[in-house]
Here is the input.
Amino acid sequence: MRAGVDLGGTKTEAIAMDARGVVLARVRRASGRSYDESLAVVHDVVAEIERLAGTAISSVGVGIPGSPSPVTGLIRNANSTWLNGRPFGEDLARVLARPTLLANDANCFALSEAIDGAGAGARAVFGVILGTGCGGGIVIDGRLWAGASGIAGEWGHTPLPWPSDDEHPGPSCWCGKTGCLETWISGPGFARDHARATGAALPPEAIIAACEAGDAGALGAYRRLVGRIARGLACVVNVIDPEVIVLGGGLSNIESLPEDVEAAMPGHVFSDAVSVRVVRNRHGDSSGVRGAAWLFA
Here is the structure.
C-alpha cells in the first residue's frame, strides 16, 4: 500500500492506493501557509488515510508546486514560496518516518495519465497542465523523465514560438523573463488576452460560455488560445515526438480543445506527417495525487 499526496497552494489531497491502482481511501484538507504547516498537513493526511485504509502505508509520494534541486535537494520554483530553499523532502521523510519521494505536480500528472490514464499503452507521453500556470511532464516507457537538472517538461517557461508583431515582446512573467508561453496559454493569460482585445475582464469559464453563445470577441480569444497552444506543442513534438499529449488543468475542461489543438499543429511540426494524438485527461483533478502515489512504482 502506497500513499500519494498532492500539496497544492490552497488544498492538499491524499490517497491510499494499492499496486493495481485501486484507491482505498481519500482525504482533503486546506493547505498550510507556512513551511511548518505544510509539513504538518502532509503528516496528518497520511496518518488519516492510513487509518481509513486500515493498513500500513509503505511509501509516500508527494507532488509539489516546484521541484527539488538534484544538486542540493532544496526546493526551487515553488509558488508556495515558503518551500523554496528548504529541505522539504528530507524533513518530510523524518516527519513521516518512511520512504518519501517528491516530484513536480505536473510530472505527477503526466505519470498518472501515462500509467493508467489517457496515455496508457503509449511509449512516450507528454502531460500538459493548462491552469493557473503552465507546466508539463515527460514519461518514457512508463518512467518519469525529470532530466539532468530536474526540469524536463517545463515548456511553460519557453518563449511563445513564431510570434506575430502584436505578440512581441509579450507579457512579463513571474520568472523574470518576457513572453513565456505561460503568460499566453494559462488561464490568467487567456483571460488577459480576451480583456486586451475586447475590454471585458472575464474569467476563463465566462469566456468559454460566451464562445458557446457565439460571442465574436470570445471566439477570437479562443482561436488565438488554440493557435498558441498548437505552436508551443509543435516545438515539444519537434524535440521529443511523443505518441500522446494529454491536456490537464482548468482549460482542459474545454471540450473541443484537444481536437482543435491537434488540428492546428501540423503546419508547425517539422514533418510531412504528424501522428501525435492530443487528448483530454482521464483522471481529472485526481491525476496529480494518483501520479504521486505511482512515484514508487
Observations:
- The CA atoms of residues 195 and 201 lie 5 Å apart.
